[in-house]
Amino acid sequence: MQLLNIITKIIFLIFFILLIESNLKLKSPINFKIHIPIAFAINNLFTYPLIVLLTSILYNSKQSTFYFFHIMIPGNFLEENKNKINGVCKKYEKCEIIYLNMGEKYKDWKTNIGYYPITVFYRLSLSDLVQNFKKIIYLDCDTMVHSDLTDFYNIEMGDSYYMGFPGHEVGYLDINGTRNFINSGVMLINLEMLRKVNVSLLFDNYYYTYGTKKVDEYLINVIFYNKISFLPFIYGIPDFEKGEKIADSPSFFWKTLNGYSNGTEEEMISASNNRVITHGAYRMDKWWTRNYDSLSEIGKKWIYYASKSNVFDDICNQYIQYQSVCSIIK
């Protein structure tokens, strides 16, 4: 009987070890076919919006995709907020989080637009910070992802340094004879090419010589005006809402581009119905600050993705205007 108990314990121990190894293999990046790096820049106030964005990425990703989330944070970023963000990968497992502590970098830079946090400049340092990838996706926190990003990441960049959704500025802003102005909230960035030109020095020199008219976005577009390309409309298309100054509708927005884009009006309309990434760029009151009933059908997806996160209860308590909707979803 004693021998039987020993054998039983040994079998149980072997089974337990195999179970642990199986879980470790499941979480390991080497067991996924596709590896995609994505970068974000946040301060403490954007913890929950980032978590919802990360959740939207993971909730809609393929089983074969593994994401490396590079999160640029200031020196005063709270550990408790890191723990909340880490919980996303604990829940979905198909990701790894790499924090890039920016300390007080760019603290003396001026955005010239008061409501932008200094973190908007962080993305200018990505080619220095991320060395083990040739390119990277960058996303602002006022975005949502509705499907897997493999096709997006696999877009051939050619000799482009940056690719992004066409900014409405192309309709009126001429930069050295070009209309290549992109919105920097959704970008595919050619890290390999940027390293070759010592881009950090280029940005520093330009800023301290001329300043910037529109935060980091202006620097990217002015310095690399002839090395910028437009992404397909499905990547970074606005959350269209009737009555908005710029993003009133797909047709209205397309007309603001004044013909300087990489697609037709029909393609813009089609993209709005087949969107991969939505960007809430053209409203200062974001999805998480508004009443649920005031949101578009796309905007209402924000609280849906929040419900799939690891901190849904916290989000419901933080944004009290959603509490009645939260009670229904729960």
Protein architecture, described:
With 330 residues, the protein is an alpha/beta fold. It has 13 helices and ten strands. It has helices at residues 2-27, 47-59, 79-92, 126-129, 150-153, 191-196, 199-210, 215-223, 250-256, 265-273, 301-307, 312-318, 323-329; strands at residues 34-41, 65-73, 95-101, 136-139, 143-145, 162-166, 182-189, 228-230, 235-238, 277-279. The strands form two sheets. It has a seven-stranded mixed beta sheet with strand order 3-2-1-4-7-6-8, sandwiched between helices. It has a three-stranded mixed beta sheet with strand order 5-10-9. α2 runs parallel beside α3 (79-92), α2 (47-59) packs across α11 and α9 (250-256) crosses α10 (265-273). The N and C termini lie far apart (51 Å). Residues 11-25 have low confidence and may be disordered.
Brief descriptors of the model:
13 helices, 10 strands, alpha/beta, seven-stranded mixed sheet, 330 residues
Element layout with pairings:
Elements: H1 2-27, E1 34-41, H2 47-59, E2 65-73, H3 79-92, E3 95-101, H4 126-129, E4 136-139, E5 143-145, H5 150-153, E6 162-166, E7 182-189, H6 191-196, H7 199-210, H8 215-223, E8 228-230, E9 235-238, H9 250-256, H10 265-273, E10 277-279, H11 301-307, H12 312-318, H13 323-329
Parallel strand pairs: 1-2, 1-4, 2-3, 6-8, 9-10
Antiparallel strand pairs: 4-7, 5-10, 6-7
Helix pairs in contact: 2-3, 2-11, 9-10
